[in-house]
Design a protein that fits this description.
The protein is mainly alpha-helical and 175 residues long. Helix content is 69%, strand content 0%. It has a domain at 112-158: DNA polymerase, domain 1, CATH 1.10.150. Helix 3 crosses helix 5 and helix 5 (66-90) packs antiparallel against helix 6. Mean pLDDT is 84; it is low at 170-175. Residues 2-106 form the POLQ-like helical domain. It is found in: Nucleus.
Length: 175
């Protein structure tokens, strides 16, 4: 990531000064630098989204709300969709294919291997990951499986939580 940051124009000194609060964008060059750094920060957040980093971890890491992250995710997916249509109209079919897969990843916040599974309407990223880890790699695998196999895979992916207290807890609270 550090190498990519350097390639797009991110400067460590600028970051250090901005963290300390010593940056005020007065000149045109400082405005451009600030814009580059903000775009890079946003791209890191999007990378975490498609890398299946939980939203609660991201809110802490990036100092923003869950709603802001979801809005960013939706905006980026929509923009990727618009560029996909643009590429189609220009006849850039390879670029269209690449961006359409990226749009799915942005929409659902998943790695590429889950794009097929998240097409099922009731599957979110977590359920798709659980099914993938259980061996259901494609929608066809899911269709061939029995309902009991799918239910077992989903049950095993979530830790069991009981609403009832353990016997020891009831005795302690009664005393």
């Amino acid at each position: 990531m550090k190498r990519v940051a350097e390639l797009v124009g991110i400067e460590e000194g600028f970051l250090a000064r901005s963290v300390k609060g010593k940056i005020t964008a007065k000149t045109e060059k400082q405005h451009r630098q600030m814009a580059i750094h903000k775009r890079f920060f946003t791209s890191l957040a999007l990378l975490d989204l498609i890398s299946e980093v939980p939203l609660k971890d991201m809110t802490k890491k990036y100092g923003c709300s869950r709603g802001q992250l979801q809005s960013l995710q939706q905006s980026a997916a929509t923009y990727a969709g618009m560029v996909t249509v643009f590429c189609n109209r220009l006849g850039w079919h390879n670029m269209e294919l690449l961006l359409s897969q990226f749009q799915s990843r942005l929409t659902f916040g998943v790695h590429r291997e889950l794009c097929d599974l998240v097409r099922v309407s009731l599957l979110n990223a977590q359920r798709a990951r659980a099914l993938y880890n259980a061996g259901f790699v494609t929608v066809a695998d899911l269709a061939k499986a029995s309902p009991d196999e799918v239910a077992t895979a989903l049950k095993n992916s979530v830790p069991f939580k009981s609403v009832r207290r353990a016997v020891d807890e009831d005795e302690e609270s009664a005393e």
